[in-house]
Design brief:
heterodimer, A: 2 helices, B: alpha/beta, Rossmann fold, 4 helices
């Protein structure tokens, strides 16, 4: 496919790319948090810790993405 | 009734693990594939099968639209769900399935999977907003 199905995706730092990458980090945060709400009581400590680590990792990734925005 | 076979094609390994755990907990038979070179040909050749395929739009080497096309090119029903962090209101190419905007609540994810598995939703075309064209 030669042409993107979404507009303005040719540059690595377009608003479209930033939106995508931020939403990808938010997706991990939301899904991991919801999974912990649902299942943490039945999971062992290691699994709970792994999911918390995902939330931390994605929150930091989101911070870095937003920190890269120049006014 | 056999479990729904769900295949996730996404390069976000954290999200793949979370969604796999969740969908398995909801009774689905879940597998995952990284978006590697040659995967489109493998799908077109029918080497991977599932009732529902969940994929991102932006994948290394190809797009979710191309993956859906490869799946559609082989015989047999299958439904594809596009879960993307892009602005789905600006999707200019019709996608033959449901389009979900990330982040997706888990309840919305399982609802979409179950809806997609209904025969009437298998590979239906989707009207999209082309107002930005």
């Amino acid at each position: 496919m030669n042409e993107s199905a979404f507009p303005a995706e040719n540059s690595a730092l377009t608003p479209s790319r930033l939106r995508h990458d931020c939403n990808a980090e938010l997706a991990v945060i939301l899904s991991a948090a919801e999974a912990l709400q649902r299942y943490s009581a039945s999971w062992d400590a290691e699994k709970n810790r792994r999911y918390l680590d995902k939330i931390v990792k994605s929150a930091l990734g989101l911070r870095d993405l937003l920190g890269g925005i120049r006014d | 009734m056999r479990p729904l076979r769900v295949l996730i094609v996404d390069d976000d390994i954290d999200l793949v693990e979370i969604w796999s755990d969740f969908l398995q907990g909801e009774g689905c038979d879940v597998s995952a594939l990284p978006p590697a070179r040659g995967l489109l040909d493998e799908f077109a050749a029918g080497r991977h099968s599932a009732d529902v395929v969940i994929t991102d739009y932006r994948l290394p080497g190809f797009s979710g639209l191309e993956l859906a096309a490869a799946i559609r090119s082989r015989p047999g029903p299958a439904a594809v769900i596009l879960a993307t962090g892009n602005d789905i209101s600006k999707l200019r190419t019709p996608f033959p399935g449901q389009v979900l905007g990330k982040p997706v609540p888990l309840a919305s994810l399982i609802d979409a999977v179950r809806r997609a598995a209904q025969p009437e939703h298998m590979m239906e075309g989707q009207e999209t907003d082309k107002s930005d064209e």
